[in-house]
Design brief:
Largest sheet: 2 strands, antiparallel
Keywords: DNA-binding
GO biological process, one term: negative regulation of DNA-templated transcription
Number of domains: 2
Protein name: TetR/AcrR family transcriptional regulator
CATH class of the largest domain: Mainly Alpha
Distance between the termini: 78 Å
Pfam families: TetR_C_3, TetR_N
InterPro entries: Homeodomain-like_sf (IPR009057), HTH-type_TetR-like_transc_reg (IPR050109), HTH_TetR (IPR001647), Tet_transcr_reg_TetR-rel_C_sf (IPR036271), Tscrpt_reg_YcdC_C (IPR013573)
CATH superfamily of the largest domain: Tetracycline Repressor, domain 2
Number of strands: 2
Helix content: over 70%
CATH architecture of the largest domain: Orthogonal Bundle
Radius of gyration: 24 Å
């Protein structure tokens, strides 16, 4: 009776190991870079500081990212990829507006809670007029925003929500949710704690959702007997 042979697993190639190490080092560099850019802005950040925090020499870091601008662009690319993936929730006009808005607000606050440094890097770039990333914002953020505004307008035309200025409603949602990352230090001071807690985000989500849904709620109608009917 022939004996069964155990399958021979292929050894990981040297090139595969090198790629894995490269990916790990890039992740380490980017994780430290987002903190430094968030703390110091583009002008104040230094490659030497980022390299030191990542446990590399400046020369080694520059093998992966030859210039500070290339590293900064990569950080913002990753920030925007993550943010847009979470934010792609509104452009579904057949869904119920209340459910969509709840999910959108929840996703925005979750990003602020999970990626505060990324949010601050993006905010600093925009506050400074987006000198190094304006084209990417125009190419990727603006079309998505316009698509979401079109969904609001479809909901308004269908009588699903009250007529609102959809552009400014989106600006308001962004401002309310992103402030929990960009101004979390100030909020923590007011709350007399070192940092915001999960319950702070939960309470913020509840309040912001209530405010937004109240803003878009259709007014109750009055029937022939004088009773108010829900929209």
């Amino acid at each position: 009776m022939a004996s069964e042979k155990s399958p021979v697993l292929p050894l990981k190639s040297a090139s595969g190991r090198r790629m894995q190490n490269r990916d790990r080092l890039e992740s380490d560099i980017l994780r430290q870079a987002v903190r430094v850019f968030a703390d110091s802005g583009y002008e104040g950040a230094s490659i030497a500081t980022i390299a030191e925090r990542a446990g590399l020499s400046k020369q080694n870091l520059m093998y992966y990212f030859p210039t500070k601008q290339q590293l900064y662009q990569r950080v913002l690319d990753d920030v925007l990829d993550d943010w847009l993936a979470r934010m792609d929730l509104l452009a579904h006009p057949d869904d119920e507006p209340r459910d969509v808005l709840r999910a959108y607000i929840s996703a925005k606050l979750r990003f602020s809670r999970e990626q505060p440094w990324a949010s601050r890097v993006y905010a600093l770039e925009v506050i400074n007029g987006a000198p190094l990333y304006g084209e990417q914002i125009r190419a990727r953020v603006v079309p998505l925003l316009r698509k979401d505004i079109a969904v609001f307008e479809q909901w308004i035309d269908a009588g699903k929500i009250a007529p609102v200025n959809a552009t400014h409603l989106m600006f308001t949602i962004w401002a309310m949710t992103q402030s929990y990352a960009d101004f979390s230090a100030q909020m923590a001071l007011v709350l007399e704690r070192k940092q915001l807690l999960r319950r702070d985000f939960d309470e913020a989500e509840q309040l912001i959702t209530q405010m937004v849904l109240a803003a878009v709620a259709m007014p109750a109608t009055v029937n022939s007997t004088g009773e108010k009917k829900p929209p």
